[in-house]
Design goal:
The protein has helices spanning 47-54, 74-77, 95-105, 110-124, 139-151, 169-184, 196-202, 220-226, 266-276, 289-297; strands at residues 2-11, 21-31, 36-40, 62-67, 70-71, 80-83, 157-161, 189-192, 205-210, 213-219, 230-236, 249-253, 256-262, 278-285. With 298 residues, the protein is of the alpha/beta class. The chain has 2 domains: 2-224, P-loop containing nucleotide triphosphate hydrolases (Rossmann fold), CATH 3.40.50; 227-287, 2-Layer Sandwich (Alpha-Beta Plaits). The strands form 3 sheets. A 6-stranded mixed sheet has the order 6-7-8-3-9-10, sandwiched between helices. Helix 3 (95-105) packs parallel to helix 5. The protein is elongated, with a radius of gyration of 24 Å. Keywords: Antibiotic resistance, ATP-binding, Nucleotide-binding, Transport. Residues 2-236 form the ABC transporter domain.
Amino acid sequence: MLEISELRKRFAGGPDAPGGKVALDGVGFSVRPGEMYGFVGANGAGKTTTMRIVMGVLQADSGSVSWDGRLLDYDARRRFGYMPEERGLYQKMRVVEQIEYFGRLHGLSAPAARKATEELMERLGVAERRNDAVQALSLGNQQRVQLAVALVHDPEVLVLDEPFSGLDPIAVDALATTLQDRCRGGVPVIFSSHQLDLVERLCDSVGIVARGRMVASGTVAELRAAESDTLRVVVRDPAPGWADGLPGTVTVNGDRHVLRVSGGDDQEVLRRAMKAGRVEHFGVEQPTLTEIFKEAVA
């Protein structure tokens, strides 16, 4: 398990901020083997700082990062796959040479690096661009190469900062499928993203960070259930004024009336609805991750 515990980080201030800026204020969560964890928050919330500390690019003021019960060190981090926010590719190097080079840096033999490179280029859809310089590729294809670099050494953990940013739907699906395959093989995957619908679709668990603090964390189902306090009732062709006096609002779509209620006596709502007409739906409405995010960071 990847365990991040009570991370704190303050950056030195300048003339406009003499006290410095608190980037992290007790951030902590864990990612289990085979789990995909979505780390979300607004710009400047602390996502990238957390990932840089995990990878040893920055040092925390306090707190710890452990893998498999041991504090992370250089050797352990070499077995991680990292995709930084600022992409780190050599622009004039050919695609195939680039991926092989990073495989060798991570300790692969030349034949192993070559084999892994060929498999990843085919899987990620850049095999036809193998001899092109990175600078000649589109942003989407550069993203694919960057992911191949993170995957080439078969990492034990994947830490990806905004891996889907700027990608078209086909590229998103290719990357998502690759990450899901790694998860099924037991690799913990943590990635940050502003695409909350994508996070909701892919992730087992989600952590929401705001102003350097964790404001919500859990499985998607747990987060949605915790915020599920809106009752949704759909009645077909009801009698006029059937919902008068009930808390909530009614919207009309053809002969269907939709009542949304927060609080109140749900049994009374059900009795009124059944008396008024045919009840087609009666249940708690599950919020989207976007709605949960807006509520959490407010």
